[in-house]
TrEMBL record:
GO terms for biological process: lactate metabolic process. The gene is lutB_1. GO terms for molecular function: 4 iron, 4 sulfur cluster binding; oxidoreductase activity. It comes from the Archaea. This is Lactate utilization protein B. It comes from Halalkalicoccus paucihalophilus. The lineage of its organism: Archaea, Methanobacteriati, Methanobacteriota, Stenosarchaea group, Halobacteria. InterPro entries: 4Fe4S_Fe-S-bd, 4Fe4S_Fe_S_CS, FTHF_cligase-like_sf, Helical_ferredxn, LUD_dom, LutB/LldF, NagB/RpiA_transferase-like. Residues 35-73 form a coiled coil. SUPFAM superfamilies: alpha-helical ferredoxin, NagB/RpiA/CoA transferase-like. PANTHER family: LACTATE UTILIZATION PROTEIN B.
């Protein structure tokens, strides 16, 4: 899809589906916060769930054999399908004589397009999950792993049902729509020859399956017809019955915010209950109990994913949809933009790359901004942003090279091969751009704003001309620092390295100066060495070789300071997230542990200093004053936002902390032409909160570069970093 086509597609979804998606995902998201808050052992449950999935995937071949033996001993059949075509061939053979088949919701069945395969052989297929039924009637694809029809409003569903079913009385209310679907689908269940379900989990030792539903339709599909086909990916197999416990606690809370879903059905098929002859007066005791059960286990790329060290974690996914519900971009456009052939949301990149190929993943992969908000919400702690970045790197390397790539490879300061788009190369090498821009400022700023320049940037780099560009400083933070005298070692209580991130050094040195003044006033001798970029910029563009190279160079530059026992302080949360998170992928374990343990966010560090010595608070600029504070996404993921809030409150500021979790800018994302409207749509919520009646006099504070850039556009008040507010005024 071209840049223009992608932008148009997003605009259309913002207009037609955005409101419904946002309302429904917010209900799920807020429900999850409430439901998990009540779990005292929430983190322990997640750790246990991950351990179980790790073990299950490592033992998968033997568990499949054990499950097959258990099901066959119970009287059922197991078929291991290599791919979608193989699975559909077997399923259509089993359903060969059937006229009607009823299904419960199953993303795996969506993955293999089994409905189309069955209908091609003359079988009438009916989805019995209400959301799936709506989608089937509308001839659309699901927009969410858990809620397939969240993009449709009640009014749209009513109009759809009234048109398609020509009801005697028009359906209007949610109750009327639900009752109509229940009665209509109830008749389909009664007449069905075959029932099909998915399986949330399969127990290898017993052949038991767990079905988790809100409507009870899966149970009906499994036991009402005399033939039951269960379709499941091989990754759903767990070793033991006891292993289900943490998942039962987590899946509903993570997905829909319920403590438990309405129906948790444990079946060991073929079940022993008699088949039901609807309309017959014969007692059930005389009914035929002969049942046929077929478990279709589907590989379709999963075993290859198991051998792929970067995609392997995808198989830990329990399909709860939490990563979609918490994602700001998904909340605004849903899975019809943030999704591929089958799967949607943050984890979809891994699934689509594994089962459908990188081309499918490439259509939406860039909608993941790496904000990391999904990491803490995943019930099995999958590093979803890393999977997205790895696949992005592979997509970049799969791009068709152009005849000019030899020039690009020779002239750009990155470690990437040809084929990476110019847009990604530009943002991945932004540190070089900023260094050049600062050296030539203010001329560079004037040239960049000229209409021909903005036109060229939009045409060549797809940088939206409506977005304000950052202004490069003509004196960098490092130049200012070298020209002054700081604390000597004898005057200081401790020493720390202030990391000169690209934005602070070349664009907003005032926040760096405020950090230096604050630290020195608190007795910290500050060092500001010449260090390379952290690797965040190329990582966000899927340029992993460059990110890895910069990570090693940065660590090498910090090693002597770590040896000397100095702390490392970051102003930009995304750089600290590299030191405490992504560097684990790039550095030897001992090196990562050393840097991670010694790294701090600036307000976290200041909070620690004044907490240990409350008298030092006197050197900071205190309130009273009213502030509106927005915490950076990665800062929240690391659990650091509270340090800034508490520090401000202790200094007598009246703090309004934004409940809006994402500003929408997300680094380079908001500059890109294809995503400008989406970025702004997300940002408008933050604008509404800070511009609400009674809040407009508050000083606006934001911890991250992206956040200040976005707020600067949205508000008439100029935002500042919190350290600028509390820094001592030394005249």
């Amino acid at each position: 899809m071209s840049t223009d086509d992608k932008a148009a597609h997003i605009r259309r979804l913002l207009d037609t589906e955005g409101d419904s998606v946002q309302a429904n995902t917010r209900v799920f998201n807020q429900g999850r916060y409430a439901a998990t808050e009540d779990l005292e052992d929430y983190e322990e449950l997640k750790d246990r769930a991950r351990e179980i999935k790790e073990e299950a995937i490592s033992r998968l071949p033997e568990l499949i054999e054990e499950l097959t033996e258990a099901v066959e001993e119970n009287g059922g059949h197991v078929y291991l399908a290599s791919d979608a075509a193989d699975a559909n061939r077997y399923i259509t053979e089993v359903a060969d004589d059937a006229e009607t088949l009823v299904k419960s919701k199953s993303m795996t069945s969506e993955e293999i397009d089994v409905n189309e395969a069955l209908e091609a052989t003359g079988v009438d297929v009916y989805e019995t999950d209400l959301g799936e039924f709506v989608i089937q009637v509308a001839e659309e694809s699901p927009s969410h792993i858990v809620g397939p029809a969240i993009h449709k409003s009640r009014e749209e569903i009513a109009e759809l049902f009234n048109r398609e079913f020509e009801t005697d009385e028009p359906l209007e209310t949610a109750e009327e729509l639900t009752m109509f679907a229940r009665e209509y689908l109830g008749e389909r269940v009664k007449e069905a020859d075959v029932g099909m379900t998915g399986a949330n989990f399969l127990v290898a030792e017993s052949g038991t399956m767990l079905l988790v539903t809100s409507e009870g339709n899966a149970r009906k599909c499994a036991v009402a017809p005399d033939t039951h086909i269960a379709v499941s990916g091989v990754e759903k197999v767990l070793p033991n019955f006891e292993d289900l416990q943490p998942f039962i606690e987590l899946i509903a809370r993570s997905g829909t915010g319920q403590d438990l879903t309405s129906y948790m059905s444990l079946l060991t098929p073929p079940v022993s209950t008699p088949t039901i002859e609807f309309g017959s007066d014969a007692p059930l005791s005389e009914a035929d109990g002969d049942r046929d059960f077929h478990l279709v286990l589907i590989d379709n790329g999963r075993m290859a994913m198991r051998e792929d060290p970067e995609l392997r974690e995808t198989l830990y996914c329990i399909r709860c949809g939490a990563c979609a519900n918490v994602c700001a971009n998904f909340q605004h456009v849903g899975g019809h933009a943030f999704g591929g052939e089958t799967y949607s949301g943050g984890i979809a990149t891994g699934w689509e790359a594994g089962v459908h190929g990188q081309e499918s993943a490439g259509e939406f992969n860039d909608l993941c901004t790496g904000c990391s908000r999904c990491v803490n919400q995943c019930p099995v702690k999958i590093d979803i942003p890393w999977i997205n970045e790895v696949v992005r790197d592979r997509i970049n390397r799969g791009e068709a090279p152009s005849e000019f790539d030899f020039l690009v490879e020779g002239l750009t300061p990155d470690a990437e091969p040809g084929g990476v788009s110019l847009q990604k190369r530009f943002f991945g090498n932004f540190g070089t751009v900023a260094k050049l821009g600062s050296k030539t400022a203010p001329v560079s700023n004037w040239l960049a704003e000229l209409p021909p320049s903005r036109w060229a940037m939009e045409k060549v780099l797809q940088i939206d001309r409506r977005r304000d560009l950052p202004k490069f400083a003509d004196e960098t933070l490092q130049e200012w620092f070298l020209a002054r005298e700081g604390l000597s070692p004898t005057e200081a209580d401790r020493e720390a390295v202030l990391y000169p991130d690209t934005y602070t050094n070349y664009i907003s040195p005032e926040r760096g100066k405020a950090a230096v003044r604050t630290l020195e006033s608190l007795g910290v001798r500050v060092l500001l060495p010449d260090l390379p970029e952290s690797g965040r910029a190329p990582l966000s563009q899927g340029m992993l070789s460059t990110a890895r190279e910069q990570a090693h160079e940065t660590y090498a530059g910090l090693a002597e300071h770590l040896d000397a026992g100095r702390d490392v302080i970051a102003i930009e949360p995304s750089d600290l997230a590299m030191f405490r998170g992504e560097y684990e992928k790039f550095l030897p374990e001992a090196s990562f542990d050393r840097l991670s343990a010694a790294s701090y966010e600036i307000c976290e560090y200041v909070y620690g200093l004044v907490t240990n010595d409350p008298e030092k608070t006197d050197v900071l600029t205190e309130g009273p004053g009213r502030v509106a504070y927005h915490s950076h996404c990665q800062q929240r993921t690391m659990g650091l936002g509270e340090y800034t809030e508490t520090l401000l409150e202790d200094l007598n500021y009246d703090v309004l902390t934004s409940t809006v979790e994402c500003c929408g800018m997300a680094g380079s994302f908001g500059y890109k032409e294809q995503y400008y409207e989406l970025s702004m749509d997300v940002g408008y919520e933050l604008e509404d909160e800070f511009e609400a009646a009674g809040q407009r006099d508050r000083t606006v504070l934001a911890s991250g570069t992206s956040c200040t850039d976005q707020l600067d556009v949205l508000l008439e008040r100029k935002p500042h970093h919190p350290i600028e507010l509390i820094a001592p005024d030394l005249g």
